[in-house]
UniProtKB/TrEMBL annotation:
Required for nuclear movement. May interact between microtubules and nuclei and/or may be involved in the generation of force used to move nuclei during interphase. This is Nuclear movement protein nudC. CDD domains: p23_NUDC_like. Residues 30-119 form the CS domain.
Length: 192
């Protein structure tokens, strides 16, 4: 992935082309996984194809706070590893559908973040491109939309280790104050 500075130097057409290539690469990486997955802010749903005729007793499924494993008994796991974020084990479930698909439902502990992947060693998706399926920002009234956009911005900033909008406002106010009062020395000041 290109850095933000690199992206800022590109024309709109070049950015669109890069986004298209990133989406294609992401789609190919996700298609190569031995499962499909979808997510909402509070949950992740995974479908794992298994041989027709598979029943629950034929499977070994392990769902832990930060681990997931699915295997046919006596065989290597179909998927196994560390979850990218922690889950609520008691609210997470699995079942076999039509004796050919394992459905896994995971409840996220942090219900305000998008997952980049299911297992940490699998390819990541760009969570900045996610639009919740059941709502569009344009459907919201102005005040609510502004609040949601601010929350999304702040969440994205936190994930990148950058200051939130409130922190940016405080920093800007401090700069203005310092410019207006050059006689004051802020070198050892602790600002919170």
């Amino acid at each position: 992935m290109a850095s933000e500075e690199d992206t800022d130097m590109l024309s709109k057409e070049e950015r669109d082309q890069r986004d298209k290539e990133d989406r294609e690469r992401e789609r190919a990486e996700q298609a190569a996984l031995p499962y499909k997955w979808t997510q909402e802010l509070g949950e992740v749903d995974i479908t794992v194809p298994v041989p027709k005729g598979t029943r629950g007793k034929d499977l070994k499924v392990v769902i832990e706070k930060n681990k997931l494993s699915v295997a046919l008994k006596g065989q290597e796991p179909i998927l196994s590893g560390e979850l990218c974020k922690e889950i609520k084990v008691g609210d997470s479930t699995w079942t076999v559908q039509d004796q050919q698909v394992v459905l896994i439902h995971l409840e996220k502990i942090n219900q305000q973040t998008w997952w980049e992947n299911v297992l940490t060693h699998h390819p990541k998706i760009d969570t900045r491109k996610i639009e919740p399926a059941n709502s569009k920002l344009s459907d919201l009234d102005g005040e609510t939309r502004g609040m949601v956009e601010k929350m999304m911005f702040d969440n994205q900033q936190k994930q990148m280790g950058k200051p939130t909008s409130d922190e940016l406002k405080k920093m800007e106010a401090l700069k203005k104050f310092q410019a207006a009062h050059p006689e004051l020395d802020f070198t050892n000041a602790k600002i919170s």
